[in-house]
Amino acid sequence: MNTVEIIDRGLKCLSDNLGADETELFISTILRERFDYTKWRHTFIDDINTFEKLDNFVNTSKNIETFKGNAKQTL
User: Fold this and answer.
1) Which residue from 8, 57, 68, 72 puts its CA 20 to 30 A from 16's CA?
2) Does residue 8 contact residue 16 with C-beta atoms inside 8 Å?
3) pTM for the model
4) Quick one: pLDDT band at residue 75, thresholds 50, 70, 90?
5) In the predicted model, what is the mean pLDDT of residues 12-30?
6) Which residues of 29-67 are buried (b: 16+ CB within 10 A; e: fewer)?
């Protein structure tokens, strides 16, 4: 899979789940804030060093509620 295909799939995923307006807001916020996904992601997984901890993380993540705020509100 090439970069264009990955971007296309990512945008489709965002659009399907957020809608066009919220997708645009999400992308503009990520770009404006110079968001580092890798650094952000490490805050969740730095202490996962066993399969038991990984299983606990996955099971806990399944119970996290979805966003209920106002996606049109910019921070």
Assistant:
1) 57
2) no
3) 0.48
4) very low
5) 89
6) eeeeeeeeeeeeeeeeeeeeeeeeeeeeeeeeeeeeeee
Token couple for 13: 């995923």
Check residue 67 and give its pLDDT.
57
Which uninterrupted H or E stretch holds 3?
helix 3-18
Q: At what angle do helices 20-32 and 3-18 cross, to 10 degrees?
A: 120
Per-residue H/E/C for 31-63: HHCCCCHHHHHHHHHCCCCCHHHHHHHHHHHHC
Q: Which token pair is 14?
A: 């965002």
